[in-house]
Amino acid sequence: MNEIWQGLIEAGRLIATLDADLIEISLRSLQVTVTAVLIASAIGIPFGAWLAVKRFRHRRAAIALLNALMGLPPVAVGLFVYMLLSRSGPFGVFGLLFTPAAMIVAQVFILTPLVASLAHQSMRELWADYHDLLISLGATRRQRIAAIVRDGRRALLTAALAGFGRGIGEVGAIMIVGGNIDHATRVLTTAIALETGKGNFALALGLGFVLIGLAISVNWLVHTLSRTEGGARW
Amino acid sequence: MSGMIRVVLAALVAAVVAGTALAETMKLAVTTSFENSGLAGVLLPEIAADLGIEVQLLVVGTGQAIRLGAAGDVDAILVHARAAEEDFVASGDGAHRTEIMYNDFVLIGPGDDPAGIAGAGTADAALTAIAASRAPFASRGDDSGTHKKELALWEAAGIGPEARDVGWYKETGSGMGATLNTAAGLGAYVMSDRASWLNFGNKGDLVLLFAGDPALFNQYAYLPVNPAKHPHVKAEAATAVEDWLISDRARALIDGYRLGGEQLFTFNAARE
After folding, report:
1. CB contact under 8 A, B57 and A181
2. Is A233 part of a structural domain of the chain?
3. Which tens digit of pLDDT belongs to each residue from B134-164?
4. Domain membership flag for residue A62
5. What is the pTM of this model?
6. Which of residues 239-258 of B touch A (CB under 8 A)?
7. CATH number (domain holding residue A70)
8. Domain count across chain A
9. ipTM > 0.95, yes or no
């Protein structure tokens, strides 16, 4: 119990002193995960909506597969991306391994199925409501997708935030493809793993509290900016 | 809404990118024991000041360090597992092997020392006593240099893999710090490099019980990745860092490094 208190105190000290290393790794955590969420949303949301609107033969199997991919093990994804980006791998010439770009690539693999699957769930219900209207208006498939995405934007925001939540706390994949290099690819989660390995539990726990605080702040900020859950809105 | 988020994001990304400066960088895969010792924190700023090279460390086990070097993903490696290093050079992945320094391994265990290894004369005798008492022992089990050394010591003591059953011999499959954490939790014996042990923050009941047998000495070597096989590596930077590591300047810093009043590393550079 004592160590948990020390962790809280350590978190308070790091934030109060605006510790330069803490700010650097926190910004890098945000940079990697927010970029990955934007890319994953740009792919996953249209795909999820398309899957809700389009009827095709193996749709059920495709949805089952997509849902299963939500559980992709990050360590395996990390190893896969490592092999792709390694100098001896197919994309080695770009020299991306052990850079934040590699970490973003790995997180896009992890987050896209999650965002797409959640987007599909919410779009499917909207589509059930809008189906007759949009068909009778003679909307093209592109227009149908655009209409349900626009009206379902709050649910899609939740899907993106779920992706953010999975990405910001992820350590297995980014440890492998980023390498946890000080001042280059170290982020909050890999720093926590490192400090735990050194037995510095208070500092590791303090970083953990900072990470939780960061996740709460981002969610709050996004909801504020998008004015959801306001007094007069339902 | 999304426009505003993008502006905030762009500002964040710019702030992060602006943080990096130094002219040249090279990637060096090193073992956890080197990083945990704190010596890296002394040497790297000096290298940056003298050579203008920023050495980026990838802290991994020796097995993974050699894999990274063989794939050409780092420019050089600094490890401690002689047989594996020689294979690395023989396969053409490593240019050559340069010995830099050594430190030593120590045997750690619970303060009440149920196997009584504190009075053992040799590492052989200490390990034999642990096996005979079947007191728990935490092994790295991760193919690192430390793990390979530990296995060689068990073999030398005549205690083969079949004698090390899971009833007392626990392979953690993780780094030195995680293994020390496990040992602290189990009240187990564990072999660690001295530096990782001194820097470890969660000692609990564990104490240093046995050290000093020359069999426990641990030679570090620097191996640049072979530019003939991997043309993209930063061979010039790797060579400059190597020349620096065998210089008298490095000797003074390495021999002079103290942790808790103890000298950790002994400089013995010799180019092969």
Report:
1. yes
2. no
3. 999 999 988 888 999 999 999 999 999 999 9
4. yes
5. 0.82
6. none
7. 1.10.3720.10
8. 1
9. no
